[in-house]
Amino acid sequence: MISTPDLFTSAMARLRRRGAGIGGAALTGSVLLQLPAQIACTDTPELGDVDQNDWAQYEGQRNTTMVSYTGSAWSVCRFPNTRFGCGSVEVIVKLRVRPVTGADINWKRVGVVYKTPEDQSERTAIGRYFATWGNGDEEWHVPVLVSSAQKTLLFDAWYQDGAGHTYLDDNNGELHVYNDGPSYQVVRVEPWRNTVVVDDDRVTGSISIQLADLDFDKQIDLYATTDGWASVIELGVGTPGERNRWYWAEDYAWSGRERWQIDLDLPQGGDALEYAVVYRHGVVNGARSYEFWDNNGGSNHVVPRIVVP
Asked: Tell me, what CATH number does 278's domain have?
């Protein structure tokens, strides 16, 4: 049997082990983790099991009827500087929750647990009530303050209903993603590394891309053509040494990024190779998928055919 003080101590210890912090909105003398009125008998979890999840995933019940990310978020510039632009960015995450009759409003909390690819520290932001919808559900806005250099967020939404329950929307374990800015913050072709050669008969050489490491499970596709999109070449992920498939090449020591590469050997030449790259997150467990493109600003990347004089 775990007592109420022991449960609170255990929960806070988990936060400390994961380097958790409070961000977004300040707490005003209230305890973040709600302790239920009655504590059931339970086994103490193994540390390895705890460390796989953040505190909301560990404490909460996955239930998107009670809380869900609406898919809407926006940003506001904070601490503007004439020389460097925004010192920080406040991202507002819009959530929906279902109120519970008879709940204690003093224990009601809505928020997100978030991190960035560059900084995997677990942080918690608390939301504020905004409006009640026609069906009785409530809209809450959660402000998350991040560096202007770290504007891609991974997060889950949580809701402590004031009646002893914590509910969770963590995108079926894959986390939601919000990228404040262009997609090249998440996926970017590295033209200085590319060695592609197009001639009359073949396309050979390598394409290198840089990815924000959102999750282990990734879907990366190359869409290309050598005949002006009369036909489309689609190439996905494979293993190192496999031709015409993306593979992991290295981790960058900075900024939570990876380099992936594809080694082309295509038996179709033409006037040029035109291509774009898409990177999808949330591709397992029935999660909501988020996709990010590098299509050279809508013009696609183009490698012209070698002209032999």
From this structure: 2.60.40.2440
